[in-house]
Design brief:
The protein has helices spanning 16-33, 96-108, 122-126; strands at residues 7-10, 51-57, 60-69, 80-87, 113-118, 131-139, 142-149. The chain is of the alpha+beta class. Strands 1-2-3-4-5-7-6 form a 7-stranded mixed beta sheet. Strand 6 (131-139) and strand 7 (142-149) form a beta hairpin. The protein is globular, with a radius of gyration of 15 Å. The mean pLDDT is 92.
């Protein structure tokens, strides 16, 4: 069982072993399991403001997400964008994504945030104050909904 200690780093702080571990999880789930056929490596991981958060069990990453900062908000005032939320198949249902989301809300809760949720997972984000808006859309053949959380000061 992971110890639920969150690792949080910007790209320049990430070791090559850590990078390999979280990219392996992302590709195992998004490409192998979900059959996503769009580019996983979008250059946003490299941006100086991007924060990578993950949980590990030894060298294995069990849950991961990243927080981007857009220069121009996609919706209202939400410059912070949560993405690439992923949990290893054998670790799902244990609340690991919630652990990471709680940290993000703790760290950035004063700022408006946006995310594009796979539609079936929207309830997870609603627990953290995200509300859906706009129509559902298909991304890589998977239904998604865009969700917004106002900054709470």
């Amino acid at each position: 069982m992971p110890d639920n200690s969150i690792i949080q780093k910007r790209f320049g702080e990430v070791t090559t072993t850590e990078l390999y571990a979280f990219l392996k999880l992302r590709t195992d789930v998004f490409y192998v399991e979900q059959k996503v056929d769009e580019s996983e490596l979008d250059d946003r991981d490299l941006e100086p403001a991007t924060e990578h958060l993950w949980l590990a069990d030894g060298p294995r990453v069990t849950a991961y997400l990243r927080v981007l900062e857009d220069a121009v908000p996609e919706h209202l005032d939400a410059a912070r964008v949560i993405g690439r939320v992923v949990v290893a198949a054998d670790q799902r249902g244990r609340g690991l994504a919630q652990v990471l989301l709680a940290r993000v809300v703790e760290r950035f809760g004063g700022e408006a945030m946006l995310l594009h949720s796979q539609s079936y997972a929207a309830g997870l984000y609603a627990k953290f104050g995200f509300e859906p808006f706009g129509p559902e859309f298909s991304e890589a053949g998977i239904l998604h909904t865009t969700m917004y959380r106002p900054g709470i000061r």
